[in-house]
Amino acid sequence: MLIITIIRLGLQSDCARVEALVADATQKARYLALMAPHSGDWLLALPITSCGLRLDDEAVRVAIGARLGLSLCVPHKCNCGAEVDAEARHAMAEWPDIRL
After folding, report:
1. Residue 83 pairs with which residues in a beta bridge?
2. 76 φ, ψ to 5°?
3. Helix (H, G, I), strand (E, B) or coil at 24
4. Which residues pair with 76 in a beta bridge?
5. H/E segment holding residue 51
């Protein structure tokens, strides 16, 4: 959340210091994604159900949690046998294969 606050304030010198502290590849990717122009524009979309622009509470929870790098679930074993970590990265990688 510190990174988001720094970005919002537009403090470029502080952003450079934060970027230097980010060592993990996942955190660096998240940081660079947050720095991209218009990366948060989806948060400004009007929730118009008839246009398919409305997210239910669970979708918002997962989207915000993934954006901030929060734990989304309890680590467990997937139906395919793979381990799912707290950030649910396996589930997101398998998402296109999920049949409803």
Report:
1. 77
2. -155, 180
3. coil
4. 84
5. none
The tens place of each residue's pLDDT in the chain, 100 residues long, gives 555 555 555 555 666 777 777 778 888 888 888 888 888 888 888 888 888 888 889 888 888 888 888 888 899 888 888 888 888 877 777 665 544 3
Q: Which two tokens stand for residue 47?
A: 């929730």
Q: For the chain, percent helix, then strand, then coil, each to nearest 5?
A: 55, 5, 40
Asked if 34 and 18 touch (Cβ cutoff 8 Å), the reply is: no
The predicted model scores a pTM of 0.61
Domain boundaries, given as residue ranges, for the chain: 1-39, 47-100
- Tokens representing 7? 């970005």
Give the distance from CA 97 to its chain's centroid.
Answer: 20
